[in-house]
Amino acid sequence: MKKSFWLSLLVCVNLLLLTAIILTSYSLPTALAQQPAGLADNFMIATGEIQNEYDALYVLDLKERTLHTFYYDKGRRRLYYSDFRDLERDFRNNRD
To answer: What are phi and psi of 46, to 5 degrees?
Structure first.
């Protein structure tokens, strides 16, 4: 066999080994959905579908204990504020 074949084979093996070393030594950073900092820990958000044309966005304000409701009109592509609920008042009589 020719020397150039063996040289090419050794170069390919070295590149393969180098790639394996790099991939095993590198780890991805941890993904955090929300880091509690500032105002981020005062709110919780959930989405849902109201009807075929509308989606809902629920924002729970933990500091004020209120639930705000927004709805998104898919046809007009607009977000509207609907109303809020005072959860302190709603659950006042349910304390143990």
So the answer is: -140, 150
Query: Interior CA angle at 51 toward 45 and 85, to 5°?
Result: 45
pLDDT of residue 66: 94
Q: Judge whether 56 and 71 are in contact, CB under 8 Å.
A: yes
The rounded Cα 88 to chain-centroid distance in angstroms is 29
Token pair, residue 34, equals: 């929300």
In three-state secondary structure terms, 27 is coil
User: Of the candidates 49, 93, 95, which has an alpha carbon nearest to the alpha carbon of residue 72?
Assistant: 49
Instruction: Give the residue carrying structure tokens 């659950």.
Output: 91
Q: What tens digit of pLDDT does each residue of 25-78 get?
A: 887 777 776 655 666 678 899 999 888 888 999 999 988 999 999 999 988 999
Q: Rounded mean pLDDT of 8-27?
A: 90
Structure tokens belonging to residue 17: 């080994």
